[in-house]
Amino acid sequence: MDKQSWEEAVQDLSMMLMYLTRMQDSNEYCRYMETAWKGYDFGILQKLEDDQMLWQPKKSRYVYLSEKGKESARALLQKYGLPDVDLYEKFEFRKIVPDEIEQAAWIEQECFPPKEACTAQIMQQRVEQAPELFLTARDKHTGRLVGFINGLSTKEYNLRDEFFTDVSLHDPQGGNVMILGVDVLPEYRRQGIARELMYTYLRRQRENGKKLVVLTCKPQKVKMYRKMGFRDHGVSDSVWGGVQWHEMSCVVNI
């Protein structure tokens, strides 16, 4: 390994420490945001902000880590042979790749009843048309997908049933995102995967300039999504699969 300068070493150490000690924002509607204590060298923090690794709100004791910054920190931990937090030691959260479409379609069938599940054909269309809105969780040990979130962009504000079947409704310039599926295989649930998928998804949509993220869920899931920062708007107009849904939304940019 090439010898680093003092400034480079401090920057690497600062980035790793901020990443490993990060915490959720205390605001109930921004819990997906991750902050770290600001008590580091001012010049280093400014350099990291210039490199879009973080940003520093004025008059705050905390900094907000960007997705780029966290990816950099994870790469540094690997470079120095240091462990990550438990969830990221076991799972990788990233965009889908084309050869995982079949796995995603199978997971959808495992997670939803036949009338609600996306078909393999439509799943492929979603991946082809909106790969940037398809976030997966991969088991590092087995290499297989264990869950994902996927959606489409639109200028509309409500999730209507046509979004589930008509991928042509995807508008890359649309400021809102309609989530079409939050899937985690049954044997991988209760490990925090769905929460991490959702928080990562919301942060990425915020950084991509999206304004609003909308989903529909069954009544028994409303409490779970409220904890993730979504607001419940009551019973949805959607009758997808012949069941009742609640529509919920999360503002990620004003």
Beta-strand level of the residues, as a percent range? 15-25%
Order of the strands making up the biggest sheet? 5-6-7-8-9-11-10
Instruction: Please state the structural category.
Output: alpha+beta
Sequence of secondary-structure elements: HEEHEEHHEHHEEHEHEHEE
The average pLDDT is 95
Which regions contain 5 or more consecutive residues with pLDDT less than 50?
A: none
Cα gyration radius (Å): 19 Å
So how many helices?
9
Coarse shape:
globular
CA distance, first residue to last residue: 45 Å
Largest sheet: 7 strands, mixed
Helix-residue proportion: 25-40%
Strand element count: 11
Describe what this molecule looks like in 3D.
- By secondary structure, the protein is an alpha+beta fold.
- Helices cover 35% and strands 23% of the residues.
- The chain contains 9 helices and 11 strands.
- It has helices at residues 6-20, 42-50, 67-79, 86-90, 101-111, 120-129, 162-165, 193-207, 222-227, and strands at residues 23-24, 34-37, 54-55, 62-65, 91-95, 134-139, 145-154, 176-184, 212-217, 231-235, 246-251.
- The protein has a 7-stranded mixed β-sheet with strand order 5-6-7-8-9-11-10. A 4-stranded antiparallel β-sheet has the order 1-2-4-3.
- Helix 8 (193-207) links the parallel strand 8 and strand 9 (212-217).
- The longest helix is centred in the N-terminal third of the chain and has 15 residues, at 6-20.
- It is globular and about 60 Å long.
- It starts with 5 loop residues before the first helix and ends with a strand.
- The mean pLDDT is 95.
